[in-house]
Design goal:
The structure holds two protein chains of two kinds. Chain A is an alpha+beta fold. Helices cover 21% and strands 20% of the residues of chain A. Chain B folds into two domains: 268 residues, Cytochrome Bc1 Complex, Chain C, CATH 1.20.810.10; 106 residues, Helix Hairpins (Orthogonal Bundle). The chains are: A alpha+beta, B mainly alpha.
Chain lengths: 200, 436
Amino acid sequence: MASHETSLNPPLEPDDEPTRRDVILIAASGFAAIGAAAALWPLLDQMNPDASALSLSSTDVDISHVEAGQAITVMWRGKPIFIRHRTDKEIASAKDVVVDDLRDPLARNANLPESAPASDDNRAAKDREPWLVMIGICTHLGCIPKGQAVGDYKGEFGGWFCPCHGSQYDTAGRIRLGPAPQNLAIPPYTFATDTKLKIG
Amino acid sequence: MAHESTYQPATGFERWLDSRLPVVRVMHDQFMVFPTPRNLNYWWTFGGILTFMLIAQIATGIVLAMHYVPTPEHAFDSVEIIMRDVNWGWFLRYSHAVGASMFFVAVYIHLFRGMYYGSYKAPREILWILGVLILFLMIATAFMGYSLVWGQMSFWAVTVITNLFSSLDAVIPGLGTTLVQWIWGGFSVGAPTLNRLFSLHYLFPFVIFGVVILHIWALHVPGNNNPTGIDVKSDKETVPFHPYYTIKDGFALVAFILLFAAVVFYAPNWLGHPDNYVPANPLQTPPHIVPEWYFLPFYAILRAIPNKLFGVIALLSSIAILFFIPWLDTSKVRSTSYRPIYKWFFWAFVVTSIGLGYLGSQQPEGWYLIAGRLLTFYYFAFFLVIMPVVGWIEKPRRLPGSITEAVLGHEAPEAAPSPSPSPPPARKRKRAEEVL
């Protein structure tokens, strides 16, 4: 563009001193950037879980028919929840573990503080040792581990085996072998009665 | 390459248009008379084939979207309705699904051609980087398209791949989970996820189209590389793009379409997986989940690493590392034909990539896991060790003085001196044969 000095195109300031124009330019650019960022946020936040996904009803489960050695799967928040009625042998094998030697030494139990260790007591239902309630999603890449049905291969530790990439969980749902980084997560839940479980 | 415009508007209307929007001039200069090295072989025809595939995918995709319903309740059924009820629906869907595979066949050949002939080296770094960017966009688009079928493989592919981001929990606790829930729009893969995958699957091909225009632009500034890897030195070493390469590219395209049509009409599900004809079930993971064939090498790399976060980093790095090869390769010689040591490593890399693809389709156990780790090691060592080190220690074979000499042998007059460090004098006739 030609740079003739006219009233519309005044000469530049002779030195580098800031001028009123610089101030206006910086202020205007600054406000434009803030405005653009503010307008961008709704475009990004609309992707987060919406109100209907957040207003989660809790799920009530009748567990009276689940005998020792059996397990059922129910849905909560679109996720499978594993409910296992463990045998005495399974409980004993879960207790016979040094917690500090585990791959993931934390309980990952939403009903306990985050720092709770992954002892069997902290994994199983409070005061209801045979019951184990977990989100049945492998902590590696989200597959559903095998081990709920009677005939399933349950891995070397007798708990669950993920068919996708070979992660193995023990009878307290703790990661023992394979690529998964964490123990199976435990959702918030309470026992309304001895046979009625409320998840969420 | 940059050259003076030779466009002469023939009619009054063309002159009128040319002074307002010189689009005919651009087409004439860039696609009719564009000076193209005279020695391009058939490996150079895949750029045109890829352009055709992109347009074919967009065309079939737009019409499929007129019949597809992106909700978990209806997605699978709408695909079956396309297959059974919609006029020509079977043809359109098989063309689109097989087309994705053919697109990747062509892009992998195109990529290995660029690697073999050093097309990423100066002054074509930006051209190469745009190409890798297109590859990334293609991978994302193909993945999202596969998810739309909402069969078992679709659903669990989305679950596994979106969960890759949860590995960021190992960096900042909660970051990965937050990100994954943002991608899902919920607490698991569901209706919002499918709907946004559809929206983005429709968008991305047009983004690819835009980057392809930049890719061609970046190609037309320095001009084509060629099988000798040496620069064009005179006009005699080029031919106009039309008719020479429109005919050659056209012939290759017809051959490619024959192959494409053979798969569409005789083996449309050959490259697919039968489990994807089972509707998505969020409560049951199929016993053996595998991605589509074109992702298998990367899947093998993911599974070769026993740590979740590092597995994901290796997976992304295995593609992203391509961005850096213009600087990882230290050799001044472009074409692998003149690199006696690197040549072996290059073909070993091709075999490694195919081997990783095979291992990606197998269960990661025992011997397969060990082989996967060895090949993953070679895959990265090729870029990070072999490319820089071989470039330093290798003594390249003598380069021909010019493209003309390479094509016509010793009869051609010697042009500019060879950039080769110490050219051995003999073996001239053999050289020309090897180049061809």
